[in-house]
Amino acid sequence: MSVNTSREDERIEEGVKIDTIRRLSVYLKPYTKKILVVLLLMFIIVSIQLLNPYFLKLGIDHFIEGKDVKGLILLGIGMIALNGAAMFCTKKRIRIMAELSNEILMTIRQELYTHIQGLSLHFFDQRPVGKILARIMGDVNSLKDLFNSSVMNLIPDFMMMIAVVIIMLLMNYRLALVSFIMLPFLLLGMFLVESKAHKRWQIYRKKNSNMNAFVHEDFSGIRVVQGFAAEEKTAKNFDNLLNEHREAFISAVKLNDLFWPMVEVSWGVGTIIVFWYGVRLLGTGTITVGLLVAFTGYLSMFWQPVMSLSNFYNILITNLAGAERIFEILDIKPDIEDEREAKVLPMIQGEVTFGEVTFGYDPKDPVLIDVSFQTRPGETIALVGPTGAGKTSIINLISRFYDVQKGAIFIDGYDVRDVTLESLRSQMGIMLQDTFLFSGTIEENIAYGKLGATKEEIIEAAKAVHAHEFIMKLEKGYATKVNERGSRLSVGQRQLVAFARTLLADPRILILDEATSSIDTHTEKLVQQGIERLLAGRTSFVIAHRLSTIQKADRILVIDQGRIIEEGNHETLMKEKGLYYDLFMAQFQQII
């Protein structure tokens, strides 16, 4: 289990909020028409709301004092009709905004997913899958309230505030100025709270990401956990992460909970001051009862947007951390990408040349040192050597999963850095030691090697590697569904399916990394027959610790400590009695 998930990814970014808001606003541009419709509906709603206090003043000062019952009834009917229209507009606005916000979230999630797919393996080497899932799912979902509030509340609340302030000043500027007396104190309090709350929400998002990473890793390796009876230990680790997650959430919420009390206290105190001052003005005859009632109505309409805006600000600092984490990923550029003038690699023959290649996953610690060799088209090359010698690094470089620090790699004379990745990798078939099957049917997994392959082609590939026989014995044959990572199949069966998938791709260069490591001896012989029949005319690189599987290779490269120390076919290397001889004899003695 990873022991560092609770300490990774803890760096906090400062001073990027304005830029983050600007970048989020870009996602609203394609929906300008819908937003204009929403704004029109909001204008209608706000206008009706602004009329309500005036109607109260009109009803008190004119119809009630004048005892005009008919006029009061007509006024009431008018208010009911207008507010009914406002309710209809509100319902319409909410529906449009729900559609709009979900479309925006889909756009962001698709953009993030597509971007991550294009990132280099170095990115995935550094991050647990759980952390990546947290970005795509949790952080994107956190933006829903932000987009809803920004259009549904922010704009109409500003419209409402400005209109109410103007009306209040026109009605009685003295009462208006008194009603604003608490506003500076509120703004100061919000500023002080926000400066700490945003950082706390950043920490919370990262703790949530750590917890997701741990859970994903734990359940992915559940066989190891249960096999070593480590349930209690992992439960304690999870409990520690859960406590950190809870404490980070509580710490952030404590500050968030201050927003509403500050607004309500300001509202309450401000209203008391207005009533106190308004009653004094009534005594002087400066204002009427109707005006005071209408003014208090407008005062309520002033503080409601203030509260709503503070709530939006609260949502902003709560969810902005999620947006920052999304853009942090989107700003990462792939280590491996097409050069500006990259060419499409034409159909290749399969000549591979390594020219004094030096490479290390950490440039300061090279895995390969001045490696040079050349293959002929259609030649089978076996890579042999102790664990960690650099065999897998060689095939990673051929596929350009990584770039060399020194030297160059050529395929048919083309530097792999000068051609497009798609045209390079589409002509390669790779079967790695870690066999991966997707959730779905066996047929779908094999067809992944050649999208759009016919059923006949799929069956032919399966027969070639002798997978057809066991597939037909399954409940639904090729339509049998495999669970995540193919857990319904044995390790050997998974490898046979993956082998059929690779062969179906009809690659010009085939790479097999420990492809037969988990297949029994009988099945291995059948697979070798399939390999000999189907790999004719293809350049192939084979990594195998079981040396009996590579005796027929055209050439064997023996690698040790990042260098090629021996080269030749099986008979030649056995005569030289070097490292290859020692490795082969050690395995032979184990078999005996």
Q: What does this protein look like?
A:
- This protein is of the alpha/beta class.
- It has two domains: 314 residues, ABC transporter transmembrane region fold, CATH 1.20.1560; 132 residues, P-loop containing nucleotide triphosphate hydrolases (Rossmann fold), CATH 3.40.50.
- Helices cover 62% and strands 10% of the residues.
- The strands form three sheets. Strands 6-9-10-3-11-12 form a six-stranded mixed beta sheet, sandwiched between helices. It has a four-stranded antiparallel beta sheet with strand order 2-1-4-5, with helices on one face. It has a two-stranded antiparallel ribbon with strand order 7-8.
- Strand 11 and strand 12 form a beta hairpin.
- It is elongated.
- The two termini are 37 Å apart.
- The N terminus is likely disordered.
Topology overview:
Layout: H1 17-26, H2 32-64, H3 69-117, H4 121-126, H5 129-141, H6 144-171, H7 173-179, H8 183-220, H9 222-227, H10 231-256, H11 259-284, H12 289-330, E1 352-359, E2 368-374, E3 380-384, H13 391-398, E4 406-411, E5 414-415, H14 421-425, E6 428-431, E7 440-441, H15 442-447, H16 455-464, H17 468-472, E8 481-482, H18 491-504, E9 509-513, H19 521-534, E10 539-543, E11 555-560, E12 563-568, H20 570-576, H21 579-591
Parallel strand pairs: 3-10, 3-11, 6-9, 9-10
Antiparallel strand pairs: 1-2, 1-4, 4-5, 7-8, 11-12
Helix pairs in contact: 1-12, 2-3, 2-6, 2-12, 3-5, 3-6, 5-8, 5-12, 6-7, 6-12, 7-11, 8-10, 8-11, 8-12, 11-12, 16-18
